[in-house]
Design a protein that fits this description.
0% of the residues lie in helices and 61% in strands. It is built from no helices and 11 strands. Strands 2, 4, 5, 6, 9, 10 and 11 form a 7-stranded mixed sheet that branches. A 4-stranded antiparallel sheet has the order 1-3-8-7, with no helix packed on it.
Length: 119
């Protein structure tokens, strides 16, 4: 089983930047795609950015050009650099990882980190 621990959330003014990090630990043989999702009040959880095991990124249209996802396979970490933040980015951000352990392929989630962008 994998444990995912996020860090880096907080309060920032509109136009500012934040960097989220997520570290994976536990018992697994490999980690595949890793990503960031977010949940805002009254909205469904949505995919923000995804990065494959080979390092290919994909972004939601709403964050393209502003957010950058990256990963360090040696450290089992994924990061999300968020620039030009707006109030629309206010949400709880969750790290996700697809991993393989002794019983097969699974999906793991972090506990979430709050990002609040003030106008």
């Amino acid at each position: 089983q994998v444990q995912l621990v996020e860090s880096g959330g907080g309060l920032v003014q509109a136009g500012g930047s934040l960097r989220l990090s997520c570290a994976a630990s536990g018992s697994f043989s490999s980690i595949g795609a890793m990503g960031w999702y977010r949940s805002a009040p009254g909205k469904q959880r949505e995919l923000v950015a995804l990065i494959t095991g080979g390092g290919s990124p994909n972004y939601a249209d709403s964050v393209k050009g502003r957010f950058t996802i990256s990963r360090d396979n040696a450290k089992n970490t994924v990061a999300l650099q968020m620039n030009s933040l707006t109030s629309e980015d206010t949400a709880v951000y969750y790290c996700n990882a697809l991993y393989r352990d002794s019983s097969g392929y699974k999906s793991g989630w972090g506990q979430g980190t709050q990002v609040t962008v003030s106008a």
